[in-house]
Specification:
heterodimer, A: two-stranded antiparallel sheet, B: 582 residues, mainly alpha, 3 domains, 21 helices, Cation:proton antiporter (chain A), transmembrane helix (chain A)
Chain lengths: 245, 582
């Protein structure tokens, strides 16, 4: 199709879809009403299981099967990236060269790194109590490690980041989630049942299996992001086309 | 028994994590054996559940059984159609893994388990989608199977074509998924529910259909029809199927695309079919135009291909059109027919892809013209190919023939003619390939139009060009073909399928004289077309009106997206009159 025809087709389809969406918006319930049928049920259920953060209760207890699917999507994307960005026969690996880093940047990165890792771990650990949780905390931890790339250089980062180990960690965390879910069937009543004691409301150990599933997701998220962030610069920095110079 | 429903998803996913966790140490044989074992275990479980699916199995994951009719959990539903699709998906995964035994040239270094792991994740996604009883949960597993399919399609990254095909597959299907998600948002805003049945009840309670239900209907259907490759959402499919590794093509054409049609069937039945929502006549009106177009475009494009994998891909598009016509007609006979048809088609189409894979790995080409007469020595493969093709046309007593004949009787009128014509043209095209490639009949055709995609200079997927075809690569298509024969020929099997689909509402699911005649007609037509094409190429040469049709398949993702938006608008416009009157 020529550019002109393509734009005409796009305009026709786009106008139709826009008209549909606008018309649908006028039928939506008003903003800020007091009718929240699902919300009310969810809060009741999460309080009954001593989970202070309702979102965590939805993610890791009430709809933990969805989280299993989402975790598998993340896991599959990481695996897919590893397969697609592999070193093929006609490519070879070049050693990255060390690069000078400005002193203030180096100092800043090295000071912030431990703080950022700690923050990430805190966010994971308090997932069942306060906003945050496994997915979010995992990303914080993983990006924190990459401060080393800014502060030192690519080779320093590679030393603390053996990608193979993180790939295995990703898989182990995912299987931990699955095993915990199957344990629910053995020890409790059904797959992904919350079979542990619910504990005292608003303490670290409350919520039964919620903190455990949350921790598995935290580890999975952190490992997944490390591997993803490793693969793309790898492709750009190290892997080169042809037989080399 | 119902407690085992979530295990159907957990087992393949667990297998994938084990393969990746130990993948760096495992030798390739162990990794591939483990992959097969997990896939086969899941398949066994799916079959056991299927045999116990009456009365329907319902499982609230995590034990969130409704209290006072309300629950916050996710429900999985094990009924005949869903578990049947899960079983087909699992069995085909086993077949594809067996076929790809020691297959790939460069398994990623230190990642021997990654291909079987991706296949297991694909299997888990398909099973999860098939048994979901919750709209959002269905979406999550729909996404899982899509994401894995993109990666598997682009597996041979050395080739630019593979990356392009995977990219257009990824973009189109992701946009479809966004459409579904927006539709779910609208439905949730209206009803405050995510369980399929509850959404349906909520819509019903709200009364007459309005712009919101219409938009939600169009958006949800868009996503599913992108997956089902209905015109004009189909452009990604030939591009992706032509470049995906053969074992992946087997799963894509054999069951993933069909799951899109299954989604349309299931979600329409449980969510939109209420008296006050989208009337059946509207669904029929919305679906029938698109599906007739799909069948015709698929068949015509299939006939004028020389790239064998593209040809098979278009034949899948054409058959999807026929399935969707059956689904749109909403009668128990049609449902039973579609179920049998899908079962038979799964076996035959996978067998055809498997045989084409043998050609690719033996001769480094999938071009009908370049391969002319070169595969004379592959006698076993030739027999498999020809038999598969005849059964694709509807030869009795294969499963496709029975399913198609039941469907043809239930739709009636001009649509019956369309069914016979489409299956004859697609099978005729494949038969033409078989006679030229395996028997060297006719003269070697010259080069066609410059816009054609040839299949020359394709890289074999195996380590080297095969000098001898491994037994697994011929045994798998043979077994699949026998299975698809059994679907139609084993007495009582068809009746059991009918019982699982519609509770035996449509009484007679066996060969009658009329059905035999329908099957034989399309088979003879296919034979005639293929003979004509091979002996006299002039009268069936490419007419001038083909060029614009061919140009629509431009490979430009922007074009495909523009057509997708037009398709959504078309769906809504076709369903609009009923809503205005309602």
């Amino acid at each position: 199709m020529t550019r002109r025809v393509r734009l005409i087709v796009l305009a026709v389809g786009g106008t139709g879809l826009a008209a549909l969406l606008v018309a649908a918006c006028f039928c939506l319930p008003g903003f800020g009403g007091d009718r929240h049928p699902y919300g009310d049920r969810v809060v009741r259920a999460s309080l009954a299981r001593h989970t202070a953060n309702t979102i965590a209760s939805v993610n890791f207890d009430q709809r933990s099967f969805d989280t299993l699917g989402e975790m598998s999507i993340l896991f599959a994307s990481v695996l897919g990236t590893v397969v697609l960005l592999r070193q093929t026969r006609d490519e070879h690996r070049a050693e990255p060269e060390p690069e000078e880093v400005a002193l203030p940047v180096r100092r800043y990165a090295l000071v912030v790194l431990p703080v950022a890792v700690l923050t990430g771990l805190y966010v994971i650990a308090h997932g069942q109590l306060s906003p945050g949780g496994g997915f979010q905390g995992g990303v914080v931890v993983a990006t924190a490690l990459h401060l080393l790339y800014l502060g030192a250089d690519y080779r320093a980062l590679e030393r603390i980041r053996p990608v193979g180990t993180y790939e295995a960690g990703d898989a182990l965390a995912a299987s931990a989630y699955l095993v915990l879910g199957l344990a629910g069937a053995v020890a409790g009543t059904a797959v992904l049942a919350n079979f542990l004691p619910y504990g005292t409301f608003n303490t670290l150990s409350s919520g039964g299996t919620v903190p455990l599933l949350n921790a598995a997701i935290g580890m999975e998220g952190a490992c997944a992001v490390v591997v993803l962030l490793a693969r793309f610069p790898d492709q750009a920095v190290e892997i080169e086309k042809g037989d080399g110079r | 028994m119902h407690h085992l429903l979530p295990v159907l998803v957990a087992v393949p996913l667990l297998g994938a994590t084990v393969l990746v966790a130990c993948g760096q140490r495992l030798p390739r044989v162990v990794a591939e054996t483990l992959g097969c074992a997990f896939a086969a275990g899941t398949a066994g479980l799916a079959i056991v559940l299927l045999l116990n699916a009456s009365p329907p199995l319902t499982e609230w994951v995590g034990g969130w059984t409704p209290v006072g009719g309300e629950s916050v959990g996710i429900v999985l539903v094990g009924v005949g159609p869903g578990l049947g699709m899960a079983a087909v998906a699992s069995l085909l995964t086993v077949a594809a893994l067996a076929y790809s035994w020691h297959y790939f040239d460069d398994a990623p270094r230190r990642h021997a388990g990654s291909f079987p792991a991706l296949m297991l994740l694909f299997q888990g996604g398909m099973c999860g989608f098939a048994i979901a009883g919750d709209l959002f949960d269905a979406f999550v597993f729909f996404e899982l199977m899509s994401v894995v399919a993109y990666a598997l399609t682009g597996h041979r990254v050395e080739e630019a074509k593979a990356v392009q095909g995977a990219l257009s597959f990824g973009v189109l299907n992701s946009l479809g998924a966004y459409a579904v998600l927006m539709g779910i948002g609208l439905l949730y805003a209206r009803t405050g529910e995510l369980t399929l049945v509850k959404i349906g009840q909520g819509l019903d309670r709200h009364g007459g259909p309005d712009a919101l239900t219409l938009t939600a209907f169009a958006l949800v259907l868009t996503g599913l029809l992108v997956k089902a490759a209905a015109v004009p959402f189909h452009f990604w499919l030939p591009d992706a199927h032509a470049v995906a590794p053969t074992p992946v093509c087997m799963l894509l054409s054999g069951v993933m695309v069909e799951l899109g049609a299954y989604g349309v069937w299931r979600i329409y039945r449980t969510v939109f079919s209420g008296l006050a929502v989208i009337p059946a006549s509207d669904l029929e009106r919305a679906l029938v135009v698109l599906s007739v177009l799909t069948a015709v475009v698929g068949a015509v494009m299939c006939w004028y291909q020389r790239h064998v994998k593209r040809l098979l891909a278009y034949s899948t598009v054409a058959h999807m059109g026929l399935f969707l016509i059956g689904i749109g007609s909403l009668s128990p006979e049609a449902d039973d027919g579609v179920a049998l048809y899908i079962l038979g088609h799964a076996g035959v189409k996978t067998a055809l892809f498997a045989c084409t894979g043998v050609l690719l790995d033996r001769y480094g080409s999938v071009d009908e013209h370049a391969l002319h007469g070169r595969a004379r020595r592959l006698r076993g493969v030739a027999v498999l190919y020809v038999v598969s093709t005849l059964s694709l046309a509807g030869l009795p007593p294969f499963g496709i023939g029975l399913g198609k004949a039941v469907l043809e009787e239930s739709v009636g009128g001009p649509l019956t003619v369309l069914f016979v014509a489409v299956s004859a043209v697609t099978a005729g095209a494949v038969l033409r390939v078989a006679t030229r490639v395996f028997f060297g009949l006719g003269t070697q055709p010259g080069d066609g139009s410059s816009y054609e995609t040839t299949g020359i200079r394709e890289e074999p997927e195996t380590r080297h060009r095969l000098s001898r075809v491994p037994d697994t690569m011929t045994a798998v298509p043979a077994v699949l073909l026998v299975a698809s024969l059994a679907v139609g020929a084993v007495p009582g099997f068809a009746a059991a399928v009918g019982h699982a689909m519609s509770g035996g509402a449509a009484p007679s699911l066996h060969w009658t004289r009329g059905r035999l005649l329908l099957g034989l007609t399309s088979t003879l037509l296919a034979l005639g077309l293929a003979t004509l094409a091979v002996t006299r190429s002039k009268p069936l040469g490419e007419p001038s009106w083909m060029a614009p049709l061919r140009r629509l398949q431009s490979g430009h993702i922007g074009d495909y997206v523009a057509w997708m938006l037009v398709g959504t608008t078309l769906l809504a416009a076709r369903a609009l009159p009923g809503i205005l009157n309602g």
